[in-house]
Design brief:
Blueprint (H helix, E strand, L loop, with lengths): L7 E2 L6 H11 L3 E5 L2 E6 L16 H10 L11 H17 L3
Parallel strand pairs: 1-2
Antiparallel strand pairs: 2-3
């Protein structure tokens, strides 16, 4: 691992909060050893990065308009409940091999 701190031997038994604080402070992973073998690692948490939503005026409307025809159109209007029933029947037929 790049930038790894020296492994900690658990025979010295430092407390977990001390180890966590060292990782937080150094921002480097810390290997935990027992009986001469690395048995665990404590790694710094990655910060959560939220992407900014920049929507220019009109751009949102354009993307909605682009999606409007993506699913196709019906030859005649249909109620939502009818669409759900058809979708359910198609699902059951596909799942259980009925036609």
């Amino acid at each position: 691992m790049a930038h790894e701190s020296a492994p900690v031997d658990m025979s010295n038994a430092p407390s977990l909060p001390e180890l966590v604080e060292e990782v937080r402070r150094t921002k480097r992973p810390l290997a935990i050893r027992a009986d001469g073998k690395v048995v665990a690692e404590i790694v710094p948490a990655q910060p959560v990065v939220k992407q900014a939503r920049h929507v220019r005026a009109g751009k949102k409307d354009a993307s909605i308009a682009a999606l409007a025809g993506a699913a196709g159109t019906l030859r005649q209007p249909m109620l939502w409940q009818e669409m759900r029933e058809i979708a359910w029947e198609d699902h059951i037929a596909e799942k259980f091999g009925q036609s």
